[in-house]
Amino acid sequence: MTTHAETPWRTLSPRTLLAHCAWLGAPLGSFGLTLLATGGHPGARAWSTLGTVTVVFLVITAAGLVTYRRTRYRVTPDAFELHTGLFTRRVRSVPLHRIRNVDLTANPVQRVLGLAVLRAGTGGGTRSAELSLEALTRPAAERLRVELLARAGAVDAEDPVVSTADPRWLRYAPLTFWIFGGVFAAVGAIWRVLDGVGIKPWRIGFVRHAFEGFGRSALWLTIPLALLVVTALGVVGAMALYAENWWKYRLEWTDEATLRVRRGMFTTRSVSIERARLRGVVLREPMLLRAGGGASVRAVAGGLGNREENRKRSVILPPAPKSEAERVCTHVLGQQGGRTGRMGQTGQTGQTGQMEVPLTAHPRAALRRRFVRGLLWVVAPVTVALAVLGALLTPVLLYCAAAYAVLATPVVHALARDAYRSLGHALRGNWLVIRSGTFQRETVTLDRSSVLAWTFTDTPFSRRAGVVTATAAVAAGEDGYRIRDMAATEAAGFADAAVSGMLREFLDI
């Protein structure tokens, strides 16, 4: 049997150096763009920028060489050890039982070279809580992932595959904010790049001609045309981004009792979530996606890094039909619950899907609070601003203020009613179900045993309305999930029923 001292050290792949040399594409691409935009006559600022980027490239390449030469790692029977550093040597030894998830990613250059980056999360919320190796050969990365997760037990499931990609899901890609936001973000990025190399974007030939052509046309024609162009670009961009992120998507249970998501076209990603760390799921239905009959799913799990990293790694189903999202939720939580049965089987309705069970409605005061907030934050500021400007400048703005108030008020009321209908909570067997939101409606299903604490929040206005917001603290996901504006008289009793005995002494008092 190999002892701790006899466990051999391993090194990164020599192809890591080639991957770092890919940084040369950035300065060459930037300089080529400059030559194209200036007709082959770049200015002094462009040459200066190229020199700066080249220096940065050389520094990064040198750092890659140091990383390759000075990185060693090994997996002992009880720990993962990593040695790095040149002037300051850094030695890390992490017990295997602390490793919560193992991710594999590969950008296009690394895929061509047959490499992958392995990141093992230890459950902390900082970068220091993550072990990273870049880059390993793909087979070596797969073997190391299996080694690090080998302590988990097997899954008792007839079919380990939960869900796979369907090309028809592309129709849900445009039903997101990024259909417009992505276009403006891309234009802003290109604008900054051109400005950084000394090029005035508005002086480029076709851009200048486009602005001149728009300027000579009537606004009633140019504005709709511009919106149509932005929408078309947004749809194409959203579908391309969806395809790149979720190409060959596959959600499955591995033999090591780990839920694994594999996806990606140019940059491949493989995220593993240990079954023991699953605390529930979140069914997400943004307004546009909900209107199209779609939804996405996130896992509520510990050990996925800080909040930002958690939001990226916890997605286990992209925008897809709602029926598929509900099926994934049921399957994942059924497996997470072991042989105790799938979610929803203990509900009074007798339905098999947890997302179909009825939820307890909230007091009508919650509807009034949402409508009043909409009036104060959406209707009143714009109306008052237009009215003040109308009194100071022209009476036309007074009519605009009145028209805005008349048109915006029913819209706000409709949104408030939708937000109120979305509110709900319930206990179903071993699960706590929470739903809220209108622009971003979420149905959260949590394992009741994972709730560590309850927090009750109110304000003078909520106390007057007789409602309170209860927050279930969980060491996973967003760290806490809110039941907004539930009846104050029922909050403590519901919390005690959800986690038996936690509030009993306070209720007795």
UniProtKB/TrEMBL annotation:
Superkingdom of the source species: Bacteria
Keyword Membrane attached: yes
Keywords of the record: Membrane, Transmembrane, Transmembrane helix
Transmembrane domains' residue ranges: 21-40, 46-68, 175-194, 218-243, 371-390, 396-416
Comp. bias (Low complexity): 342-355
Keyword ATP-binding attributed: no
Pfam families reported for this sequence: bPH_2
Annotated region (Disordered), positions in chain: 336-355
Protein name: PH domain-containing protein
Organism from which the protein derives: Streptomyces morookaense (Streptoverticillium morookaense)
Taxonomic placement: Bacteria, Bacillati, Actinomycetota, Actinomycetes, Kitasatosporales
